[in-house]
Amino acid sequence: MPNPRVQSMLEKAQAARRNRARLLISCPDQPGIIASVSQFLYSQGANIVQSDQHSTNPDSGLFFMRIEFALPDLQERADALRDGFAEVADRFRMDWRLEFASVPKRIAIFVSKEDHCLLELLWQWQAGDLFADLVMVVSNHPDARAVVEPYGVPFYWIPVTPESKPEAERRQRELLRGQVDLVVLARYMQILSPDFVQEWRHRIINIHHSFLPAFIGKNPYARAHARGVKLIGATAHYVTEELDEGPIIEQDVLRVDHRDEVEDLKRVGRTVERNVLARAVKWHLEDRILIHENKTVVFA
Amino acid sequence: MPNPRVQSMLEKAQAARRNRARLLISCPDQPGIIASVSQFLYSQGANIVQSDQHSTNPDSGLFFMRIEFALPDLQERADALRDGFAEVADRFRMDWRLEFASVPKRIAIFVSKEDHCLLELLWQWQAGDLFADLVMVVSNHPDARAVVEPYGVPFYWIPVTPESKPEAERRQRELLRGQVDLVVLARYMQILSPDFVQEWRHRIINIHHSFLPAFIGKNPYARAHARGVKLIGATAHYVTEELDEGPIIEQDVLRVDHRDEVEDLKRVGRTVERNVLARAVKWHLEDRILIHENKTVVFA
Amino acid sequence: MPNPRVQSMLEKAQAARRNRARLLISCPDQPGIIASVSQFLYSQGANIVQSDQHSTNPDSGLFFMRIEFALPDLQERADALRDGFAEVADRFRMDWRLEFASVPKRIAIFVSKEDHCLLELLWQWQAGDLFADLVMVVSNHPDARAVVEPYGVPFYWIPVTPESKPEAERRQRELLRGQVDLVVLARYMQILSPDFVQEWRHRIINIHHSFLPAFIGKNPYARAHARGVKLIGATAHYVTEELDEGPIIEQDVLRVDHRDEVEDLKRVGRTVERNVLARAVKWHLEDRILIHENKTVVFA
Amino acid sequence: MPNPRVQSMLEKAQAARRNRARLLISCPDQPGIIASVSQFLYSQGANIVQSDQHSTNPDSGLFFMRIEFALPDLQERADALRDGFAEVADRFRMDWRLEFASVPKRIAIFVSKEDHCLLELLWQWQAGDLFADLVMVVSNHPDARAVVEPYGVPFYWIPVTPESKPEAERRQRELLRGQVDLVVLARYMQILSPDFVQEWRHRIINIHHSFLPAFIGKNPYARAHARGVKLIGATAHYVTEELDEGPIIEQDVLRVDHRDEVEDLKRVGRTVERNVLARAVKWHLEDRILIHENKTVVFA
After folding, report:
1. Is D148 within 8 Å of D122 (Cβ atoms)?
2. Residue C169 — φ and ψ, nearest 5°?
3. Is residue D207 within a helix (H) or strand (E), and if so which, with residue range?
4. Phi-psi region for residue B240, left (φ > 0), alpha (ψ -120 to 50) or beta?
5. Which residues are within 8 A (CB) of D121 and not within 5 positions of it... i.e. 6 or more apart?
6. Residue A290 carries which DSSP code?
7. Cα C81 to Cα C74: distance, rounded to the nearest angstrom
8. Cβ B259–D50 below 8 Å, yes or no?
9. D105-298: same fold as D18-100?
10. Do A51 and B34 touch (CB under 8 A)?
11. Cα–Cα nearest to D213, from A283, A253, A202, A187
């Protein structure tokens, strides 16, 4: 249980979101989709609060849509709503889901030693800026326990060595299964196994430093410094089998100059990483991200 | 006639926009608007390319919508489309208009001595970034003639003194009437009469420097310098009877520091002004701005 | 005493700054200042690590300088250094001070109910990004106690009513006197008396929301929303007798749009406020700010 | 000869810079450099207007310095100044040069078909924001002639085919030799031969698109689009033998999103390229850039 202050903030946020839902749709583009979806919602008595669409190409492309609507007695009518919409969805061969805005997504944060991303997420969460159920923090080091537990969030220290890794992952996945909707890798420095990634496909968000040009491999900050880059960036993305090649959710950069030593670049890197990761997580929690192929559509 | 290079760019842009139209709507919010509008467009065979909505409040607020759609033989079917939509519009008490994307808006640029905003608009226009018919440049000084005429744009030098002002305005308004859709005040340092503003209400865009805090009155840059501000801003807005109090379209700032003299602040101010004005004009040309009360909704 | 984790971070930071000092100078500009100062430091065996200068006007203006240097056995030689430099200083009629980089400034944070600025400062402090001795947090409300005390920082709840204000200020000033170098008003919503401000002149930093245009008086966010502003800003400044008119240290803005309700503007305002205040405090702690008249020179 | 308007602006700028010079220094760091340099300038009667230093490491690193100073009768005393300073320079084993602020650097702009960078440079130059002698524009295509010649700037069309390339380069280098101080590659799409680059080492500035992650090779914009990047960047750098691997002068990014097609990414890329290149050129013209190894020190 979160501490009482956070708990009361979450309850207030939940109440404010009552009777709000989001419909997320992707399908082949064709005329009539918006008409049919909005007609259906109207017939149900729903009031569209926000609607965003995107088409990769009106002729033969893909269509994406996010509709947030208000509907009295939403919970009671959820089944009927789903059944009714299934017919519309069938007609347009839609991938779709219905999300209740008042149900906080359950998240697990994975962290290693560097805690700047963890702290930012904790802070935004306890300030009510991230509406989520923070179910657990998992780390391969014990260090973060002290900052996590005062918030009433369970902390699991699961050390990882080359030998213990399979067992550690087994335990991690056991902890997550059925308890969590999203895993956030907040500078978790272990590579997840392909099995893990597959099970949690598009439900793991990672944060990664980024440079212009790229410095792939060891010691990127030292090499960025040697090259005299003027910008330090970060990329938040969903994790796929190809490691850092999953769909990009958000990117940003901050400025550095010749006076910045390697340590300064790292400090700037921490700032841009925590900002970018927090934005990406927030958008995921608010169902603002749709994925197709290896790209995201973010209705920010 | 624009010079041949610009002319050919405009023609290409026009061809790319053929059969595209934008429907702009404001009305009291109520359930069923999106459903009805999208159903109507579907029934006409139109394909929605982009759709943006905003509601100030789903219960008793105002609803704003911009739909861009593609429809074969658009020009031929325009009258039928308008007639048909009028019924939908009546039902929801809509303010609405239909704009053809391929018809460039006709703009007049007013300028005094400082030509940075004029030049930015000219450059973006000749580069094809502003799709418009640049009908004339009007100035109370002769200086800008040399940069305007090589583009094949008519330049009118209409001096303004306290005595000649009424006559000058009469001539300006005569030039504009029926020839122009939008007047851009690109650092035009004369105050337009209330009559002029009324006639061109919400069709004049002005650019104005902005500071934190505000420095109202004379010598704002000198006073901003004396106060040691760290940001220099600009605001683009529609002109209303209350001078610089009209609906804000866009704002931005740039950074300055203690090394910047008054002249540097002015230089930075010019840069932020030209960027902000060009964005505001672009959004207007693309029918992305809706006005209500003293605010804008910008579907950027 | 800070908790052990923070304590160890502070000690490491201190060690890294050993034998580092900063010389801060303002005086009438004239030829030879840099030559004399650098010659003096050289004669003492000091090595200049960073040097920044600014002149408002080489002819008859003011000259500002910040030199950071390394000198073996700095502490032992401090008195001799000061005595020696006094001669140089006399010659050029300098205002000057010598600051030891390894001596953390002692700060007190004042806060009311909104804790976003307090939290940012706490976080940056415990992360080692703000090198300071956080001596106390003072509030007119008890709410912040829970976030402050886990860090081992004393928290003083001093309620303020119109009647109790003189007594409350008396107690606050008693707490501060001799214990604190800088007071940070981190959304402290009580106006300090002129006496208080005078005693702590240029040693109180305040954070203030800022808008383009300005909305002076009550409910600025509601009025900014009604006006449809596109930017929300914040200004950090030293407190002087004229309230929010003291020397500006830093300003920044963030973008908002028509979808943002008053509550969203406030949320954005909190983000820009915490960032701007933290930067201003950091620069003060690192002796990067010189004040003259009502302006700052920031050698960032 | 530039057209009269530009010519008069240049002459005014020149007058404002009279008696101003810049001393650029790099040498092994050791105590006493600043003292000696500033002492020397003082002894000459010079008044330091701006001074920037940087040391990679006070112990065994490199020291960089840029001093801008005012000295009456500068031109007449230039030789004495140089002779005198040579002694100081010898003592510290300095690389150094003395630049007169009133002598505009002579630049040649190379361009291919895309003219956005050329236009930005022309505009800033004619507005007085780039103080330079624009000696010529060289292109392998005839297209840019129309925008260049109205400014009174000679335009050379030198077509380049695989066969004609050696001869074309020979002609280009002949045009440049003795006439030009800086070559700006403003989207010049031909690779210069190693000989050319060697002759003009650190005197050629190039602009290059940049992405996070990098897309090396063909069709970078299409690949950036396929990958769904959220930022489009540009890097301005000096050209060295390793093509795009020379010292970075400036970088920046702009934001894109899922609605941006490949063409939009290119348009955004053009904007960021022209801004970044213009800043880099401006800093070079003002002698704000020092190079060591493969990095720049930019005293911006």
Report:
1. yes
2. -65, -40
3. strand D204-210
4. beta
5. D109, D130, D184, D186, D277, D278, D281
6. E
7. 9
8. yes
9. no
10. yes
11. A253
Residue by residue, pLDDT tens for chain A (300 residues) are 788 878 888 898 899 899 999 999 999 998 899 999 999 999 999 988 889 999 988 778 999 999 999 999 999 999 999 999 999 999 999 999 999 999 999 999 999 999 999 999 998 898 888 999 999 999 999 999 988 998 899 999 999 999 999 999 999 999 999 999 999 999 999 999 999 999 999 999 999 998 887 787 889 999 999 999 999 999 999 999 887 789 999 999 999 999 999 999 998 999 999 999 999 999 999 999 999 989 999 999
For A127, the token pair is 């300030």
Phi–psi pair at A297, nearest 5 degrees: -110, 120
ipTM score of the complex? 0.91
Q: Which of C133, C244, C252, C264 is catalytic?
A: C244
Q: Give the span between the Cα atoms of C286 and C278, in whole angstroms.
A: 12
Count the neighbouring beta carbons within 10 Å of the beta carbon of residue A58.
16
Residue D63: which of D72, D54, D50 has the closest Cα?
D54
Residue C190: DSSP 8-state:
S
By the 10 Å C-beta count (0-12 exposed, 13-18 middle, 19+ buried), C191 is classed as: exposed
Q: Return the closest-CA partner of residue B228 out of B245, B244, B211.
A: B211
- Cα D64–D66–D72 angle (5° rounding)? 150
Give, to the nearest 10 degrees, the angle between helix B116-126 and helix D116-126.
160
As a residue count, chain D comes to 300
The neighbour count for residue D166, using CB atoms within 10 Å, is: 12
Give the tens place of pLDDT for each residue, C141-188.
999 998 899 889 999 999 999 999 999 999 999 999 999 999 999 999
Say whether residue B254 is in contact with chain C using an 8 A CB cutoff.
Answer: no
B57 near A CB under 8 A: no
A138, A140, A164, A165, B278 from A161: Cα distances, Å = 15, 9, 5, 6, 57
Q: Which amino acid is at D41?
A: L
Contact B288, B133 (CB under 8 A): no
Shortest distance between the Cα of A231 and any Cα of chain D, in A, equals 7
**Contacts with B186 (C-beta within 8 Å, 6 or more apart), sequence order:** B109, B110, B111, B117, B118, B121, B207, B277
**B119-133 burial, b for 16+ CB within 10 Å, e for fewer?**
bbbbbbbbeebbbbb
Q: To which residue do tokens 């040498």 refer?
A: D27
CA atoms within 13 A on the CB side of B31: 13
Token duo for residue B182: 């939008």
Residue pair C45/C72 in contact (Cβ under 8 Å)? The answer is yes
| Alpha-carbon separation of residue A51 from B66, B210, C274, C293 (angstroms) | 12, 33, 32, 52
Chain D residues closer than 8 Å to B50 by CB: 259
Contact list in B for residue C214 (CB cut-off 8 A) is: 212-214
User: From CA A21, how far away is CA A36, in angstroms rounded?
Assistant: 18
Contact B3, B151 (CB under 8 A): yes
Give the pTM: 0.91
Select the CATH number that applies to the domain covering A18-100 from these four: 3.30.1330.10, 3.90.550.10, 3.90.380.10, 3.30.70.260. Answer: 3.30.70.260
What's the full length of chain B, in residues? 300
Q: Are A63 and A93 in contact (CB under 8 A)?
A: no
Task: State which residue of chain A sits closest to C115, comparing Cα positions.
Answer: A127
Q: Which fold has domain D105-298?
A: Rossmann fold (3.40.50)
* N-terminal to C-terminal alpha carbon distance within chain B: 30
Extents of the domains making up chain C: 18-100, 105-298
